[in-house]
Design brief:
Strand content of chain A: 15-25%
Helix content of chain B: 55-70%
Oligomer: heterodimer
Largest sheet of chain A: 4 strands, parallel
Order of helices and strands of chain B: HHHHHEEHHHHEEEHHHHEHEEHEEHHEE
Shape of chain B: rod-shaped
Strand content of chain B: 5-15%
Largest sheet of chain B: 5 strands, antiparallel
Number of strands of chain B: 12
Largest interface: A-B, 19 and 26 residues
C-alpha cells in the first residue's frame, strides 16, 4: 500500500469518503489529489502528473466510466481502481477492452 | 149187387138221419145248429175278406185270408155239409170239405206260431185306448197350439211387418252406428296413438329424469366442495362424496342423522345454520382452520338457505382453501419483498456511500490515533509536544479505540442489512447449474458445523442430523450458492431456536423427495425439520416477512428467512413454506421446479 511519494487522484462526490480515503493514503505515503467530480479531476490531470486514480463510478456530470475512457483516449497511462457503492456494477465492455490489467 | 163204387157214390150209404133214428128233436137241433154255425162262419169269412180288403195296411194279410176266409169258409162248408148228410149221404164231399178244413186249419195252426210274436207285440186295445186318449189329448193340445199358432202367425205377420220396419230402422241405425263406430274407432285409434306416444314420452321423460338425476348426483359428487344438505331440524338430507371423504362417514350412514353427530367439527357451524334459517340469508365463515393429518388446513364454510315455498333447510358448502390461503400468504410475502427490493436498490448507493465514508473515517481515525509506526503520526505527536505512546495510552484509557471499533461494527451491520436488502432486488445474472441436492445439503451442514459467526450461540456439533434422502433424486437446476444460503439460514435459525429452548437432544431431519407432475418434469422437495420449540400461528405467518425476528435486537436482522423465501420463490420459481406448532418443532418445505420454468 505504500505510495512512496507517488500521486494518487481520488475522484468521489462523497466528501467524507474522499477525505478519509485521502487521509488513509496520505498515511501510507501517497501524495493525494482529491476531486469531487469527473470534470474537476480532468482539470487536475491537465495540470499535474498522476500515477494512479481511484474513481467513483456514479457521479453527477462526467461519471467514472466516461472519465476513464477520456483518460485512455488521451493515451495517458494510469492505473485505475474503480470504487462504487453499487453492488450491481459491472465493468462495461468498452472499458474492459481498454484494460491491460487483470480485473479484481 | 156189385155196383161200381166211387168215392163220391153215395148209394151205399145211409143218410145220417138214420143215426139219429130220425128222432126229430135231436135231428133238427143238430141240423139247425150246423146251419147257423155255417152261416156264422160265412159271415165271418165275408167280414174277414172285407176287413183284409179294406185294411190294406194289415201285416201278414195272407194269414188273415188263410185264417179267416179259408178256415171259416171250410168250417162253414163242413157244418153245411153236416146238415146236408142228414138227408143225403154225400160223405165223400163232406170228407173232402173236412180235409180242406183240416189242411187249412193245420196251416193256420203252424202259421200262427210264426206270426204270434208279432201279434204279441201288438198293443192291447186298452193300451191303445190309453194311447189313443193320450193321442187325442195331444191332438187337442196340438189343435190348441195350432190355433194359437194361427193366432201367433197373425201376430207374427204383424210383428214381421213391424220387424221389417224396425229392421229398416235398425239398418239405418246400424249404419249410423257403424259410421259412429268408425268415427269413434278412428278417434280411439288416434287417441290410442296419442296415448302410446304419451306412454313412450312418459317413459322417455322418466328415463331422462333418471338420467338427469344421475347427472345432478354426479355433478354434486364431482364437486371438489363438500356439500351437505340439512333440514330444519338439523338432520342431514344430502351428503356428497367429498362430505363422506371429509367426515369418514358414508352418505348412507349420514342420511337422517343430526349434523353435529356425524360431523363433530360442525358443532360451531350449527349456530350459523340457525341464523341462516332464521334470516334466510347466506352465512359465511371464511378460512376456518382445522387440523388434518398433522397440518393446519383452511376451509370456507358457506351456509345457504334453501327457500322454495317456505324455508326447507340449508345447504352447507365446505371448500378447502388451504392452497388459496397459502398462495395469498405467498403473494403478500412476495409483494413485501419486492417493495423492499425496489427500495433497497435505490437506497443501497445512497446508504453505502455515506456508510463507506463513516466506516473508512473511523478506520483512519483509529490508525491515526494508534498507528505507532506511521511517520505522520509521530511527526504530529512531536509537534504537539507528546509522543505516540502517550497518545495510545490515553486512547486506551478512554476507550476511544473501542469506540472506533464500535462505529465500524455498527457500520458493518448496516452494510450487511443493505447487502441483504439488495438480495430482494431482482438480478438478471442468475448462474444456474444442475445440482445434486443431497450433496448440497451435506455441504451446507458441514458449513454450518464450522460456523462460529454467531458468537457461539449454538453448538452445531451437538445436533443430530437424520438424513432421509430419496435415492433417485434428479439433478435440480439452481444457483447452488443461493440454495446454500437458504439452507444455512434455516439451519442456523433452527439451531438457535433449539439451543434457546434448551432442547436436550436437538435434531434436524433432512428429507429430499421427487414429486413428478403431469405437465412437466415435476418438482424436487427439500424438507428441513427441527425438534425445537416450534412457533404459534401468528409467528408462523410472519417468519418470511422482512425485518420480522424473534431474536434479541442485534442478533438477527429479520431478513434471513425473507431473503431465503425470495431466493426460492423469485430467483428459482419454487415454493417455500413452513409448518409448525408450538412444542412440535418446525418444518421448512422447499420445492424447486425441475423443468425450465420461465427463468430469468
Amino acid at each position: 500500500m505504500n505510495g512512496a511519494g507517488k500521486t494518487l487522484l481520488l475522484v468521489d462526490d462523497e466528501l467524507f469518503f474522499r477525505q478519509s480515503s485521502a487521509a488513509f493514503f496520505k498515511d501510507n505515503s501517497w501524495f493525494t489529489l482529491p476531486a469531487d467530480s469527473g470534470e474537476q479531476a480532468w482539470d487536475l490531470l491537465e495540470q499535474v502528473s498522476i500515477d494512479a486514480s481511484i474513481v467513483d463510478i456514479r457521479m453527477g456530470g462526467m461519471d467514472g466510466n466516461r472519465f476513464i475512457q477520456e483518460v485512455c483516449s488521451r493515451k495517458l497511462t494510469l492505473a485505475f481502481v474503480i470504487c462504487t457503492g453499487s453492488l450491481e456494477y459491472k465493468i462495461p465492455v468498452d472499458l474492459m477492452l481498454l484494460s491491460s490489467v487483470p480485473r479484481r | 149187387m156189385m155196383k161200381e163204387v166211387s168215392f163220391f157214390t153215395y148209394d151205399n150209404f145211409m143218410p145220417h138221419g138214420m143215426c139219429y133214428a130220425w128222432q126229430a128233436d135231436v135231428l133238427w137241433t143238430s141240423v139247425i145248429s150246423d146251419l147257423v154255425t155255417a152261416l156264422a162262419y160265412y159271415s165271418v169269412t165275408a167280414a174277414v175278406i172285407i176287413f183284409v180288403k179294406k185294411r190294406t195296411d194289415l201285416p201278414y194279410p195272407w194269414f188273415f185270408i188263410l185264417a179267416g176266409s179259408v178256415i171259416f169258409l171250410a168250417c162253414g162248408t163242413t157244418h153245411l155239409l153236416s146238415a146236408v148228410v142228414i138227408w143225403e149221404p154225400i160223405y165223400g164231399v163232406s170228407a173232402v170239405a173236412k180235409a180242406i178244413t183240416a189242411i187249412s186249419s193245420l196251416a193256420t195252426g203252424v202259421a200262427i206260431w210264426y206270426v204270434l210274436p208279432f201279434f204279441l207285440a201288438f198293443p192291447s186295445p186298452a193300451l191303445l185306448e190309453k194311447k189313443n186318449i193320450a193321442l187325442l189329448q195331444s191332438l187337442i193340445n196340438l189343435e190348441a197350439i195350432q190355433r194359437q199358432l194361427e193366432l201367433s202367425s197373425a201376430e207374427l205377420e204383424q210383428a214381421k211387418e213391424q220387424a221389417e220396419q224396425k229392421s229398416t230402422e235398425l239398418f239405418q241405425l246400424s249404419q249410423t252406428l257403424e259410421t259412429k263406430v268408425q268415427q269413434r274407432t278412428h278417434a280411439l285409434e288416434s287417441s290410442n296413438d296419442l296415448l302410446s306416444k304419451e306412454v313412450a314420452d312418459h317413459k322417455q321423460a322418466r328415463k331422462q329424469l333418471q338420467q338427469l338425476r344421475n347427472y345432478l348426483r354426479n355433478i354434486i359428487d364431482s364437486m371438489p366442495s363438500t356439500l351437505i344438505g340439512v333440514d330444519l331440524d338439523g338432520m342431514v338430507t344430502q351428503w356428497n362424496t367429498e362430505a363422506a371423504k371429509a367426515s369418514g362417514v358414508s352418505a348412507k350412514n349420514a342420511q337422517g342423522r343430526s349434523l353435529p353427530q356425524v360431523f363433530p367439527r360442525f358443532v360451531s357451524v350449527m349456530e350459523g345454520v340457525r341464523q341462516s334459517i332464521q334470516s334466510r340469508r347466506q352465512v359465511s365463515y371464511p378460512k376456518q382452520p382445522h387440523q388434518r393429518g398433522g397440518e393446519t388446513r383452511y376451509e370456507d364454510v358457506t351456509i345457504y338457505p334453501l327457500v322454495a315455498n317456505g324455508i326447507e333447510g340449508v345447504v352447507i358448502r365446505l371448500d378447502d382453501v388451504t392452497e388459496q390461503v397459502r398462495m395469498e400468504e405467498t403473494m403478500i410475502q412476495s409483494e413485501k419483498m419486492l417493495s423492499v427490493g425496489g427500495l433497497a436498490a435505490g437506497m443501497a448507493h445512497e446508504i453505502n456511500n455515506p456508510l463507506a465514508g463513516m466506516m473508512q473515517t473511523a478506520n483512519v481515525m483509529k490508525n491515526r490515533l494508534s498507528g505507532l509506526q506511521i511517520e505522520a503520526n509521530q511527526k504530529a505527536a512531536q509537534a504537539a509536544g507528546t509522543d505516540m505512546a502517550a497518545i495510545h495510552a490515553f486512547m486506551e484509557a478512554r476507550g476511544i479505540l473501542r469506540m472506533a471499533t464500535a462505529i465500524n461494527e455498527s457500520g458493518r451491520r448496516l452494510a450487511d442489512i443493505v447487502d441483504n436488502m439488495l438480495n430482494f432486488a431482482r438480478k438478471g445474472d442468475a448462474s444456474f447449474s444442475s445440482q445434486n441436492l443431497a450433496e448440497l445439503l451435506d455441504k451446507t451442514v458441514e458449513l454450518a458445523t464450522t460456523d462460529y459467526d454467531l458468537k457461539k450461540q449454538y453448538d452445531f456439533k451437538n445436533i443430530e442430523i437424520i438424513r432421509d434422502y430419496a435415492e433417485d433424486l434428479p439433478l435440480v437446476p439452481c444457483e447452488p450458492a443461493k440454495i446454500q444460503q437458504v439452507l444455512l439460514n434455516i439451519l442456523r435459525n433452527g439451531a438457535q431456536a433449539m439451543q434457546q429452548a434448551g432442547v436436550l437432544q436437538p435434531c434436524f431431519t433432512l428429507r429430499t423427495q421427487h414429486q413428478p407432475d403431469k405437465s412437466d418434469q415435476g418438482w424436487v422437495c427439500i424438507e428441513v425439520e427441527d425438534n425445537g420449540p416450534g412457533m404459534d400461528e401468528t409467528t408462523r405467518k410472519r417468519v418470511f416477512e422482512p425485518f420480522f425476528t424473534t431474536k434479541p435486537v442485534g442478533v438477527g436482522t429479520g431478513l434471513g428467512l425473507s431473503v431465503s423465501y425470495f431466493i426460492i420463490t423469485e430467483n428459482h420459481h419454487g415454493e417455500m413454506r413452513v409448518t409448525s406448532e408450538p412444542g412440535r418443532g418446525s418444518r421448512f418445505i422447499i420445492r424447486l421446479p425441475l423443468g425450465n420454468r420461465e427463468m430469468r
